[in-house]
Write the structure tokens for this entry.
Amino acid sequence: MSKTERRRQVRARDPFDVSHLICQAAERQLLAGVLINLDSAPAAARSIMAEVAPEMLYGEHTGPLFTITHRVLADVADPSRADVLAALHRAGRGQGDDVFNLFVDAVTEWAGMEPQAARLAREAAVEVQANHERRQAVHAAELVARSGGSPDDLTGMIGQLERVQAATNAAAGNRPLTLLDAVDAWAKHERAPVVPTGLGWFDGPTEGGLPVGGITALVALPNAGKSPLALQMTLAALISDPALRAVWGLGEMTLQAMARRTACVASTMLDGCDPVTMQGAGDRTDAARAANVALCGVIGDRLAIVPAPLTVDRIEERVIATGAQLVVIDYLQLIRGGDATDRVQELEHIIGRIRDLAITRECAVVCISSMARAAGASTRIGSCAKGATEIDYAVELLYVGEADANGHDVTWRCLKARNLEKRDLLLYFDGASQTFSLRGFDEFSAFAPG
């Protein structure tokens, strides 16, 4: 006897069996519409989520994912997919788990189709509601039938149906909020995981460091120190955390140019190193060689390099191979890939791929980007990055750099900080050592002549 025939026989014996009343496809579509819109259109994601309650989903994997996502939207003021990813891990649903795989599928399968996914999700919500009401009606009827239909049981059935309607109303947002809800959300709130850089002037304003599962964008005109800032943060993070691994997409610099800069930066971070300037590193002085040797002794092979030509696939392959938790792309406009008919569309597709990389591989991504010539720190968000509007919306943190006439005082304006207070970084850039520090600190006096 086949499984289908056995199920039919069971249902024939038990008219109140509801195990077959599961709308798997609708539940998956509902989740996809919420998750794919969570970053780019959070209002749409919230409105979809508000149409159903967690107890209305009965799928083995869709139910837990919806419950976790529902809790994130309730607890986080400005939620993102990275917050859902963090919540999955807290619930023990990491890579390899079926619920995690469902999350990844929902994010990747509907990338770039946010409006369509939202429309289908709303239709799916109606189906999920109807299925839930049908199951509850069967349960209510079962109470009456199994007891012989006494008046008390009829009252119980009416009460059960009223509870179903109350749950539907609550899911639709009809339940009035109170101070208890606000305090409960505040008490449950947890920050998404981060990669600490070890640099207090960055980790402080960002409440810990670079967000895992998200992008930190550094946008500026040439010579503002985009790459040096990213390199300083990366080396500092690797030195601070012996278990950390990183991948650097080397699109602009040569290997020799990168090593020249690492000698300068290492000399400011590692004990026992004499100060190294760009001039000294270019001349390959003993101090420069000693600084790079010391850096290699601390970091070893934990910083993997992907040389040009850069593609998201090549970077992701290296991330998978090394288990990197930190990725630096230097820089966005040098990445190629996608089937778009023009470069702007191609960059939009690439940014979406980078965002998916951060989420699915659970890493923090630092994305360096050239700035549109007409843009500045006061430019409307969406118009900062050269040739790419999507980066402004896809990132967790967005900094736009502005240097003074001498190129030393650099203000990194924070135009976006998801779930954080936007705080600018007021830094001093020392070109000789290729490092940043807080303004007012004479940290690099050793480089002064004489």
